[in-house]
Give the backbone structure.
Amino acid sequence: MRTMSPMSPMNPTIQMQGLAKSFGRTEVLRDIDLAVPEGAIYALVGANGAGKTTMIKLLMNIFLPTAGRAQVLGVDSRKLAGRDFNRIGYVSENQDLPDAMTVGGLLDYMRPFYPRWDRALERQLVRQFDLPLDRKLKHLSRGMRMKAAFASSLAYRPPLIVLDEPFTGLDPLVRDELIEGLLERAPETTIFLSSHDLAEIESFASHVGYLEDGRMLFSEEMAVLSDRFREVTITLAAPAPLPPNLPPAWLQPETVDCVVRFVHSEYRGDATAREIAAIFPTARDISTEPMSLRSIFLAIAKSSRSHNRAPHIPTGRRPEA
Amino acid sequence: MNQILNIFRKDTRRFWPEIVLSLAITAALVWIGPYQWMDESGAHHELEVLRSLAGLLEFLMVIGWVLLVSRVVHAEPLVGDRQFWLTRPYEWKKLLAAKMLFVAAYLYLPFLLMQCILLARAGFAPVHWIPALLFNLLLVSAVIVLPLTATAAISSNFGRMALIVVGALLCLWLLAVASQLMSFNSAPNNNFDTPIGNLLSYGLALAICGAAIVVQYSARRVRVAVLLLIGLSVCVILIFFFAPDRMLTDRTHPQASGAFPIQLSADASQPMSKERWSSTSQIGTMVSVRVSGVADGYAVLFDDAKFSLRAADGSHWTSAWQHLGHVGGNGAKDHVWITIVMPKAVYDKFSGIPLQVHLTVAFTQARIARVTRISDPYDESPIPDVGYCKVIGFRSQQGQSMPYHLSCRSPVQLPLTEITSTGTYRQCVPTGSRPLESSKVTSDWAGSSDAFSGDLSLVPVNSRNYGFADDRTQPALMCPGALKVTFTEFKPVRRMRESIDVPEFRLSEAQWPLVGK
């Protein structure tokens, strides 16, 4: 017997415990623990092939996990079916839509499936996305198809919206329209989306998780992430080599003449300044700059590749050594 | 219910061209179908063209079904991970019900209507044949519709489904070739007339295809569904080659007790071995068996036989059950010829030496339920439970009526009926004169003794010809004014088996030449 409990801050909308997926001998996801709180806009980021789509398909019960479990809106993902999808809006860049239908036909067809379908919201979305109701989906541009998929997934006001690379390959105008339409729903829903376009999610994501090679490197609030990553530039009195045994939280340290640069992944204001001064006593100047999401992930990814292992991520999900 | 109707409406709107095409083929078959059993006299060429067209339409109707089933199942594909419907609130039972409703509305219903109309056009009251039509529909489901649906359920699109169907047809063709080869190397007819095997195959097809479809719709476990279908194919092949009817003969035909009135014995008045049948590796020998104790109004139908040969030196050989077909009937009141088949090596080993033969015969005691006699049926005559029959022939230059055959138009299912004729001669003489040669009784069989039998038929009216000849090389003539045809309908009463010991039997006693096949 399945239990359908309402979400609360103590009861995450999405929760994964030790989730893993293999296709044959290929491990695509490994030991994922993750919780998405209710009301969050959670951005799952990672390079192509990191396992984002697989994770989402596990959540939607399109794939079955090899190990571990996931709960979506309080339901075991393996049992997610039928009426459970009344409360989930799912849009994917690689979804096969019923191309022979017109946009209007798709909306007419979908409407009876959902008891909470909001006709007024449907009309609003059609206007907002400028959808041609009489055009067949197969004759629409990629952007228009995505808009139609969005409209058919938002009109029943789902408490959870799951989006798999929804903005990939769209022009900036369409992307903005979709984000705008999405954000209008944000107060009443939890959004879980995957993307490898960091710039676009930075503006609206409240939480972020980074998936690399099937492992979750970290998962935390965006504000916390931005606070703890800093690009540090130290100007020394004279050129000096990098000292050995630098703190593991210092990513990609490099030195050019009198200048030392690195990314600090555990920035804590004065405490960090004291830490730097202790290591570089001849430092004449220490400057720290906040980093964009893109810069943070590039630093993490490069550090990971150069060490051929996961970098030190103090407050996020720390991979096993 | 709303969801079922919503999906059904969507599929109807989307696939109306396929529906119209399928209905058009069915309607054309209603129009052309009757030419399949139409009188041969008259415009032969046009009739042959129309008959060919009717056959083609039957084929096209099945192709239309393939298209229809594929389109409706693949509208919500069950294979793959990109289908939009997977993350929509479809309830699998309602989705499956919607697909079944579609198949019922646009495949079963038109097909059933077509069958009723064709029956009516052939002169049969459709209402009387509804149970037979529904049983035929079950066979259509087991052999065509459910396997097609299961195949669609494990494929992602029409192309892949077509590949699987072509592959399956190729396997069937190979099976047919193998069975042809087998028929040269085993007892004749062992793989045919197997109602238990057929019933088992149809039941397995219904159950396993149904299970595969449910597995796919409820859980989308493609591997499980594929394994189920592969298992079904293996089972059907095994059933075909191992003929469970023969394996179960001991159970279906219990040993007759001493009090059983029908007695079988070796017929000393007839040669032990009348003639031999041979193939590349098998030889068949006909043995005469005396029958006694058959009450009036009853008959004995010989189903299967097995035998063992034992030589004086103790060497012996025992056969498996071999199918005899409907040997007996009205012609088996006194004695019957039974063909026993053995490998050539066994024949060579035991040939020419005295043998003890232990022959076990499985037979059906049948009640004669109805006898219909007609004379000179040159005009179409209604025969109860059989249909409409007439002699089709032509007049030779000598003014004699050459028996071509007795042509009967029958509905889907017939009771087991023996059709015997008398009044056939090697040469006809003017009416009133004494015939040159005495008349012989010749016979043929129609229908089946099993309640759940009958072959799958897309057109519910069979046109079958019954040939009458007293030997294979020279057909007898049906002379006007002398021909009498009797239709004897049998109802099985009980099945039994009895054993006969033949103490002195020589395989090579008879000198008839081997007939090579």
Observations:
- Chain B touches chain A through 19 residues (CB under 8 Å).
- Residues 100 and 453 of chain B are 26 Å apart (CA to CA).
